[in-house]
C-alpha cells in the first residue's frame, strides 16, 4: 500500500508515540516487495532491526524511523553494488556504507532497499537490459526518466518518502520532472561522493528526492552537514531564455510562465553559451566515461547493456585533444554563468523539454525534427551540470502529467533557494500531486 505522508510528519508521529518505527518500516517493506513499477532491485529485511533501535531510543535524529532507499550505485555494507550492471552481480560486497548512506543512518533514517537505474548511470530512461524498465507511477506506459528512475518512481509511488540518486547530466532532475517529485543536484563538493560508483568524476553529484520542499531541505541538510538559513523576500528571479526556450513543449513553457507570473517578475537572463556548455559536458561524459570502462570493455564487452556499451566505446575512441578542449570550454562557461549571479539571485528553466514520453515513443522534436527521446530528455539539465551551481528540480502543481522546473542558485545561497521553494509550494504553484489524482 502506498503512503504519501511527508517524511517530517512520519518522524514527528514516531517521536510523539503515535506510531512506531517498526510499524512504519514494516509497511514500507511490504510496499517495496509489492512494487508494481520495478523501482526496487532489493529489499532489506534487516531494516526491521534498525527500526527497533529507533523504538528503543538507541537511534535518534531528525529522520528517526523514516524509511529510505538508494540508487543501486551507493555502497551498502555487506551488499554488492551493481551500478545497474549484470557484469557486477558477482562483484565483492561493499565493506562499508557510502558516506551519504552513513549520514542518513546517523540521522535515524532506515534503509529498506536499493533502486533501479540505467546501467552505470548512462541514460535518461531507466530502461535496463538486465534489470528491466522502471515505470512512471503517474502512467505505467510512460518513462520514469533516468538514470535515477527507481529513486524518483519509488518516492512518487509512495513506496518510500525519501530516496537517494546521483546526477551527472540530469539523472536526478530528469526523473524528478517526469515523476513529479522534488529533487536536487547540489553545488559541487557539498555532499561527499565516497562510496558512490563513479561515472564522470568532474560532473557526478549525490542527489536527494522527496515529496515536499521541506523534506528535501532537511534531507539536504543531513547529507551536507549544514543548517540552512535564508529568506525569499527581495530575490531577483529571472528565467533563462534562448536555448532554454528552444525545443520546449508547451507544458514546459507554461510551467516557467506560471512561476514568473506568480512572482511578478519579468526578468530575463541571457546565456548564449548554453549550447556550448551542454556540448562540453556531453564530450566530458563520453570521454571520461569511456576511459573509466575501457579495460572492462576490452575484457567483457558483451556483458554490457548494448546501448550503453556502444556509447562507452564511442567515448573511448574520442581523440585525447577533444577532452582537453571540452575542459577548457567548461572553465570559460563556468565563469560566464557565475557572472549571471551578479545581476540575479535565482535562475529558472525547464528541467525537461517535455512531460514523460511513452515507453514505446522513440522520438521527441528537437530543432523541429524527430530526435531520440532518451538522448534528449536531459537537454536543459546537461547545460547546467558543468556550472557547479545548486539546482532544485521542483514539480509544477498541475492537473496534467507532471513536469518540473530547475531553480538554480549560486553555491552558498541554498538557504534562499529553499525559502523560495517553500513560498511557491505554500502558494500552490509548485508541489507533488499523488498519482491518480490528476483530472
TrEMBL record:
Family matches, as Pfam families: Amidase
Domain Amidase: 24-417
InterPro entries according to UniProt: Amidase, Amidase_dom, AS_sf, Carboxybiuret_hydro_AtzE
Superkingdom of origin organism: Bacteria
Signal peptide location: none
Protein name (record): AtzE family amidohydrolase
Organism taxonomic ancestry: Bacteria, Pseudomonadati, Pseudomonadota, Alphaproteobacteria, Caulobacterales
Amino acid at each position: 500500500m502506498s503512503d504519501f505522508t511527508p517524511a517530517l510528519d512520519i518522524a514527528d508521529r514516531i517521536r510523539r508515540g503515535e506510531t512506531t518505527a517498526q510499524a512504519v518500516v514494516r509497511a514500507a517493506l511490504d510496499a517495496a516487495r509489492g512494487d508494481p513499477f520495478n523501482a526496487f532491485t532489493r529489499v532489506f529485511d534487516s531494516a526491521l532491526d534498525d527500526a527497533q533501535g529507533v523504538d528503543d531510543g538507541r537511534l535518534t535524529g531528525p529522520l528517526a524511523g523514516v524509511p529510505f532507499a538508494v540508487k543501486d550505485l551507493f555502497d551498502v555494507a555487506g551488499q554488492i553494488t551493481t551500478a545497474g550492471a549484470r557484469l557486477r552481480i558477482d562483484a565483492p560486497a561493499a565493506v562499508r556504507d557510502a558516506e551519504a548512506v552513513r549520514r542518513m543512518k546517523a540521522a535515524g533514517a532506515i534503509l529498506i532497499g536499493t533502486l533501479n537505474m540505467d546501467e552505470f548511470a548512462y541514460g535518461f530512461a531507466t530502461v535496463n537490459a538486465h534489470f528491466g524498465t522502471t515505470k512512471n507511477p503517474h502512467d505505467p506506459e510512460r518513462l520514469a526518466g533516468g538514470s535515477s528512475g527507481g529513486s524518483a518512481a519509488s518516492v512518487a509511488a509512495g513506496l518510500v518518502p525519501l530516496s537517494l540518486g546521483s546526477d551527472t547530466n540530469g539523472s536526478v532532475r530528469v526523473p524528478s520532472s517526469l515523476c513529479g517529485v522534488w529533487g536536487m543536484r547540489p553545488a559541487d563538493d557539498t555532499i561527499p561522493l565516497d562510496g558512490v560508483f563513479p561515472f564522470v568524476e568532474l560532473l557526478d553529484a549525490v542527489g536527494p528526492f522527496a515529496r515536499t520542499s521541506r523534506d528535501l531541505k532537511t534531507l539536504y541538510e543531513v547529507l551536507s552537514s549544514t543548517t540552512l538559513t535564508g529568506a525569499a523576500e527581495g530575490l531577483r528571479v529571472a528565467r533563462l531564455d534562448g536555448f532554454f526556450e528552444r525545443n520546449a513543449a508547451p507544458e514546459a513553457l507554461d510551467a516557467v510562465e506560471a512561476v514568473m507570473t506568480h512572482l511578478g517578475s519579468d526578468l530575463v537572463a541571457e546565456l548564449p553559451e548554453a549550447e556550448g556548455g551542454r556540448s562540453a559536458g556531453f564530450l566530458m561524459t563520453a570521454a571520461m566515461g569511456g576511459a573509466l570502462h575501457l579495460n572492462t570493455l576490452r575484457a567483457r564487452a558483451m556483458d554490457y547493456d548494448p546501448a550503453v556499451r556502444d556509447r562507452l566505446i564511442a567515448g573511448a575512441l574520442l581523440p585525447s585533444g577533444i577532452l582537453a578542449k571540452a575542459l577548457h570550454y567548461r572553465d570559460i562557461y563556468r565563469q560566464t554563468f557565475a557572472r549571471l549571479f551578479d545581476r540575479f539571485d535565482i535562475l529558472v528553466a525547464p528541467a525537461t523539454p517535455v512531460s514523460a514520453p511513452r515507453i514505446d515513443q522513440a522520438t521527441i522534436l528537437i530543432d523541429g525534427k524527430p530526435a531520440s527521446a532518451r538522448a534528449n530528455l536531459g537537454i536543459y539539465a546537461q547545460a547546467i551540470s558543468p556550472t557547479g551551481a545548486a539546482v532544485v528540480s521542483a514539480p509544477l502543481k498541475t492537473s496534467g502529467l507532471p513536469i518540473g522546473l530547475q531553480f538554480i542558485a549560486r553555491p552558498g545561497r541554498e538557504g534562499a533557494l529553499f525559502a523560495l521553494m517553500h513560498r511557491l509550494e505554500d502558494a500552490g504553484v509548485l508541489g507533488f500531486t499523488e498519482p491518480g489524482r490528476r483530472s
